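DM from R.C. (forwarded with permission)

"hey, sorry to bug you on a friday — could you get me a structure for this? deadline for the figure draft is monday and I only need the backbone to look sensible"
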Amino acid sequence: MKRNSVWMAMCVAMLGGAEVLAQQGMQTPNTFANPGMYGYPGLPQLPRPPVPPTPPYAPFPPTYLPNLPYTAPFSSPAPAEPRAAEPYLVLPESLPPSGPPLDSKPLNIVTEPFVQFSAPSSESEPYTIYEGQRYLAEMKEDNRQVWAQANFIHWWVRRDSTPALVTTGNSANPTAGSLGNPDTIILLGNGTIGPTEFSGIQSTIGIWVDPERLVSLEVGGFWLGKNSRQYHFTSDANGSPPLGQPVINGGTERSLLFAQPGNFSGNFAADTHMDFHSLELNKARNILRVCGWTLDTLVGFRYFYLNDFLGLNHNTALLPGGVGLIKFGGTAVPAGSKFHVSDSFDMTNRFYGGTIGARANWTWCKFDLGAVMKVSMGATTHVAAIDGSTTLTATDGTRTTITGGSLAQASNIGRITSTDFSVVPEVTLTAGYQVTPHLRILVGYTFIDWNRVQRAGNQIDRQVNFAQVPTSPQFAPGAGGPPIFPAARTDFWAQGINVGLELKF
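My reply, with the result:
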């Protein structure tokens, strides 16, 4: 009985102690730092570092964020009045991705502006692959809109070709100088004559018409200085060696002698000169600019000018033994009379046409290599001016002139015009070095080919009618027949080196 009473007292004491503990509360720390659950209160959470504000996204307009406090869209409502000892905790996953912390001040877009970005527009650079500037200098000085290029050029051209113009032979042969004789030597002609090397200038001025430097207008051209070459042949006072001009009369090879031993002495001079230049206006459009490569297309207008002149002059002094062998207008003249015979062939070619082409350039550091390929197609107008005359200087000094020479006579003298369709391709290769952002030096090679042009030497017709030659004993005023104007066409080409400078300003 006593044992039962003691056991009951111990149970009552234990129940009383448990009630006291429950009323005072347990102070065991909560490792998860969460509010108390199921009757177990937790300790307050340590202060959490503030979350830095995230700027608004660029596409949002300025009016997207008003001058109001930011309210986060919580997934669940927060307690109305969290206890001071246990502040309400917002988990990171419940915050908006770009919102400020709960305790931050209201966002003011005036004092805290955001950076606005715009997507690149494709309208300003259609059909263009763009990576950088055209030349390395543009990386440093990209505010230049105009450039100018000037080159010194030294070119070689296709020389004019002529039939045989002056011959010599055995003085004992009455037909000395005629082609076909075994002793005949051609002194001039039957091949190329005239100048072959020319020097001049080449220049280009260009301007960018858009900020991206994709479209430019370019004006340029070249000019080869007029170059000439002369040929001279003369006999002694007795007329040796014989000199003559080979011709065809009635299908037979003959020679118009102007120097023959014992009959007449003479000399011969040939004068040739040529002038070649061009102008062009192009619009360039850049279509590729990547990895140091650039590619432009060219569309424009081109003008070429080529003038080719050949003048033949020979003088004859009549000796006593030649009286009657040379006449003037069919009339015999005394010894001591002098004759001057002149033939001239002046050909002018002008080209007008459109141009299409491409220009490629590769840049490495300050070095660059380039190539330009252009084709011009259009009309070539030819103007042929042929003239000839024979002048007699009598022993008393008086002079008389008759129209017609040896190869230019009444049947082909005059001004003849014609037009042909021509194609003029051009290729230019260059290598450059960018010395400064403003200065570039370059060296290059150019080749031009122009088809269907008229050259002076090709317009000579060796078939003549002695009845039209004023110094022939067979001269008859008003006689017709050859020579004629053959209107022969040929190709003309020019090639050479270019050395120059390019300035940007």
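R.C.: lifesaver. Residues 129-504 form one domain.
me: no worries. Residues 389 and 492 are 30 Å apart (CA to CA).
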